[in-house]
Amino acid sequence: MIVTFGPSRSRRRLAACRELDCRDSQSLHVRLLWRPAHNQVLVHVHGPDGTDFWLNPPKALARYAFEHPFALAHMYPLYPEPQAAPFAA
In which band, very low, low, confident or very high, does the pLDDT at 10 lie, cut at 50, 70 and 90? Predict the structure, then answer.
């Protein structure tokens, strides 16, 4: 599945991602995404209580970040959502 990032404040087009995995746990929705154009892994966490953040872990820690996003949230933040500038093609 190809997904794009949510609404962009700058309305610039952001590169597409491939969803590698997703899960729902205790009202949280967690997605593991891969940006093939940049060979970059991202983790998106969204919850009904307003929890919404992105992680940019090293590829070697991608699965761990997906399974335990709060454990790595302080080390690899990309908050609150990817901006257009770092991802411009």
Answer: very low
